[in-house]
């Protein structure tokens, strides 16, 4: 959960997830729709799918427990060198490195390394160098110390707090006054811009949702009907009537934007009120009320700007409101 998500945002999700699915076997056996609903609002849904895939392997091959072996940990879905190294060293005391962005930043500055830290060859070299100096009986402490140094002192954004760094006397970047030049990262490729039109198709308290394909962006998630490009009101009405629905009124909604890792959606929207959702025979559409959607169907945060017109709260917004209601 902490990959790509802040600690404070994760805490309530983690508690709910553990309460709903307390064991590895529970995760392995969980229906996908429920799993995605528990994750709703955290984004990057392949993370939770990999959690379930790994849980299935643990249930079937390891009696529901993590293997105490670095290479076997790496073989689990969703687990790479860093996560395997963290588990192996901290949980099992196995002397292997756990190199994340914090550690790469610390090493780049302390040793004045100007290689691109996004390259796998650079990461492997750092892992090899750390393994050579790692205390075999305190590998977990060693890895956690480097992680915390990067997170709390050798900061990623803004000025690092060099005056309270225990490695200040050994830091070559500090000695040469070039701390802010490191680490070196190749610039990211620009995101692809996609224009979308989002449709809130309503009949009373029910709305139309559909399910995305099982592969690709937001795979297998539920969503509001949406189309490529920015449609005019007439084009939106034509689409709705093509679903064998009778449109009564159309209302333009505000523009919105959602940023994925490699794509940026620039959206416009319409509320289209129709005579009766029951009359459509178009396959692939579900007509649900607010309670059903909030309790069962996982809708990505990309649609949050428009789900409020359905009186539907997603992810963190929903959980904050529920907490406020409990406290009143």
Key attributes of the depicted protein:
Endonuclease Iii, domain 2, alpha+beta, 14 helices, Nucleoside Triphosphate Pyrophosphohydrolase, 16% strand, single chain, Endonuclease III, domain 1
Structural overview:
The chain is an alpha+beta fold and 328 residues long. The chain has three domains: 1-65, Endonuclease III, domain 1 (Orthogonal Bundle); 89-187, Helix-hairpin-Helix base-excision DNA repair enzymes (C-terminal) (Endonuclease Iii, domain 2), CATH 1.10.1670; 192-327, Alpha-Beta Complex (Nucleoside Triphosphate Pyrophosphohydrolase), CATH 3.90.79.10. Helix content is 41%, strand content 16%. It contains 14 helices and seven strands. Strands 1, 2, 3, 4, 5, 6 and 7 form a seven-stranded mixed sheet that branches. Helix 6 (81-92) crosses helix 9 (139-152) and helix 7 crosses helix 9 (139-152).
Question: Regarding CATH, which class of the largest domain?
Answer: Alpha Beta
End-to-end distance: 29 Å
Helix/sheet category: alpha+beta
**The CATH H-level homologous superfamily of the largest domain:** Nucleoside Triphosphate Pyrophosphohydrolase
Query: Major sheet, described briefly?
Result: 7 strands, mixed
Helix content: 40-55%
- What is the number of E strands? 7
Count of helical segments? 14
In round numbers, the mean pLDDT is 91
Order of helices and strands: HHHHHHHHHHEEEEHEEEHHH
**The CATH architecture of the largest domain:** Alpha-Beta Complex
Report the CATH topology name of the largest domain: Nucleoside Triphosphate Pyrophosphohydrolase
């Amino acid at each position: 959960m902490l990959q790509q998500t802040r600690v404070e945002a994760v805490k309530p999700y983690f508690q709910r997830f553990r309460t709903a699915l307390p064991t590895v076997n529970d995760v392995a056996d969980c229906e996908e729709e429920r799993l995605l609903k528990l994750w709703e609002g955290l984004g990057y849904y392949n993370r939770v799918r990999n959690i379930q895939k790994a849980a299935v392997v643990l249930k079937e091959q390891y009696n529901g427990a993590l293997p105490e072996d670095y290479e076997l940990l790496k073989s689990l879905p969703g687990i790479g060198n860093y996560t395997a190294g963290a588990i192996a060293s901290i949980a099992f005391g196995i002397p292997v490195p756990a190199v994340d962005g914090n550690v790469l930043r610390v090493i780049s500055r302390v040793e004045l390394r100007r290689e691109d830290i996004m390259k796998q060859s650079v990461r492997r070299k750092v892992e090899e160098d750390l393994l050579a100096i790692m205390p075999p009986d305190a590998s977990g402490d060693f890895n956690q110390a480097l992680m915390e140094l990067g997170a709390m002192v050798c900061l990623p954004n803004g000025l690092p707090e060099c005056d309270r760094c225990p490695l200040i006397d050994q830091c070559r970047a500090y000695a040469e006054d070039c701390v802010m030049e490191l680490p070196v990262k190749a610039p990211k490729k620009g995101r692809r811009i996609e224009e979308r039109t989002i449709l809130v198709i309503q009949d009373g308290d029910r709305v139309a949702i559909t399910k995305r394909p099982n592969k690709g962006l937001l795979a297998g998630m539920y969503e509001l009907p949406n189309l490529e490009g920015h449609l005019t009101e007439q084009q939106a009405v034509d689409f709705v009537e093509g679903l064998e629905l009778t449109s009564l009124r159309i209302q333009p909604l505000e523009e919105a934007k959602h940023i994925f890792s490699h794509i940026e959606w620039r959206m416009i929207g319409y509320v289209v009120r129709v005579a009766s959702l029951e009359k459509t025979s178009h396959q692939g559409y579900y007509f649900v009320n607010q309670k059903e959607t909030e309790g069962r169907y996982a809708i990505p945060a990309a649609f949050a700007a428009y789900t409020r017109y359905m009186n539907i709260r997603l992810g963190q917004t929903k959980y904050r409101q529920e907490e406020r209601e409990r406290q009143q």
